[in-house]
Amino acid sequence: MKNLRMKAARVSLDLSQDQLAKMIGVSRQTINAIEKGDYNPTIHLCISICKALGKTLDELFWEEES
User: Fold this and answer.
1) Is 16 left (phi over 0), alpha (psi -120 to 50) or beta?
2) Is the separation of the CB atoms in 49 and 20 below 8 Å?
3) Residue-wise pLDDT tens digits, 6-39
């Protein structure tokens, strides 16, 4: 599943995928894969992304049940 909330949070801070990746120590391809839903990040990586974007785990990674 695509992570549009993560992408929206990143874009709202005017950060490129590359800039976010450098902030948390991963590749741009990793950020791209997470946003596209092709990669399931570890909890450690999720927390790093949340801190960089000023969001909570629930705001970025919690999936609502249909």
Assistant:
1) beta
2) yes
3) 999 999 999 999 999 999 999 999 999 999 999 9
Q: Residue 3's closest CA among 29, 39, 28, 27?
A: 39
3-state DSSP of the chain: CCCHHHHHHHHHCCCCHHHHHHHHCCCHHHHHHHHHCCCCCCHHHHHHHHHHHCCCHHHHHCCCCC
The pTM for the full model equals: 0.90
How far does Cα 32 stand from its chain's mean position?
9
Residue tagged 């969001």 (tokens): 55
Q: What is the dihedral of CA 44, 8, 51, 46, to 10 degrees?
A: -10
